Amino acid sequence: MELYDVMRTTGAVRQFTGDPLPDDVLARILDNARFAPSGGNRQGLHVIALRDKDTRAALASLCETGARRYTAQKRNGEGPWNPLRPMQVSPEQLAATEVPAEMTAPLLTSAVVLVVCVDLNVVAALDQDLDRVGLIAGASVYPFVWNVLLAARNEGVGGVLTTMAVAEEPRVKELLGIPDDHAVAAVVPLGRPQRQITKLTRKPVAEFTTRERFDGESLVT
């Protein structure tokens, strides 16, 4: 496929056919994705490919903590897990919230689940002393994750970047034997999509790009 076609049609895929994703195809996806940039080209990535059903079920269960709060806050009209706005949902409301099955189903129905980790010894977290949630260290891992999804699309495979498991990161690390100095950056189910989206809806460039300043005039007029 042409690059721009891939970029414009790589949407989140959460429903899969059940067809297998052979190791050679998965290896080809990762072989191309590995050329993503990382800070200082230190490439502190580790990918765990999960096929075992019991392990995936355990991981899906751990995702329920993050998914429960996400669901409860969304139903309450809040921005789920927002770092600037404290949760208004009561502990009782949170405990009573049922997690929709579709929020964990991709981990069970995909052909493979990739758990993408990053070595914190080799990231440059320039925002670590700022009074806000850290973002910058993600530059060393998320370009790779996006490359995985682009490469998967080129192979006729789909997936979705999920982060619900991170709410239970210590237990995820114990489940998968992840060292203390590594962080869980993403959980990515991959498989053959039941339906391939061919047209995505996104904001136009004029809405998010300005000249010279945040409040400058739009780049596109």
Spatial extent as radius of gyration = 19 Å
Strand order of the largest sheet: 1-2-4-3
* Strand composition percent: 5-15%
How many strand units? Answer: 4
Helix coverage percent of residues? 25-40%
Arithmetic mean of pLDDT? 96
Please give the CATH architecture: 3-Layer(aba) Sandwich
Number of folding domains?
Answer: 1
Query: So what's the overall shape?
Result: globular
Q: Please give the count of helices.
A: 8
Compute the separation of the termini in Å. Answer: 31 Å
CATH domain class: Alpha Beta
Q: Considering the protein shown, what is the CATH homologous superfamily?
A: NADH Oxidase
Element order: H for helix, E for strand: HHEHHHHEHEHE
Described by strand count, sense and barrel closure, the largest sheet is: 4 strands, antiparallel
Oligomer: single chain
Structural class designation: alpha+beta
Which blocks of ≥5 consecutive residues have pLDDT under 50? none
CATH fold-level topology: NADH Oxidase
Describe this structure in words.
The chain is α+β, with helices and mostly antiparallel strands. It has a single domain (3-207), classed as NADH Oxidase (3-Layer(aba) Sandwich), CATH 3.40.109. 33% of the residues lie in helices and 12% in strands. It has eight helices and four strands. It has helices at 3-9, 23-33, 53-62, 64-75, 91-96, 105-109, 142-154, 169-176; strands spanning 45-50, 112-119, 158-159, 182-191. Strands 1-2-4-3 form a four-stranded antiparallel sheet. The longest helix is centred in the last third of the chain and has 13 residues, at 142-154. The mean pLDDT is 96. Pfam families: Nitroreductase (PF00881). Keywords: Flavoprotein, FMN, Oxidoreductase. It comes from Mycolicibacterium vaccae ATCC 25954. InterPro entries: Nitroreductase, Nitroreductase-like, Nitroreductase/BluB.
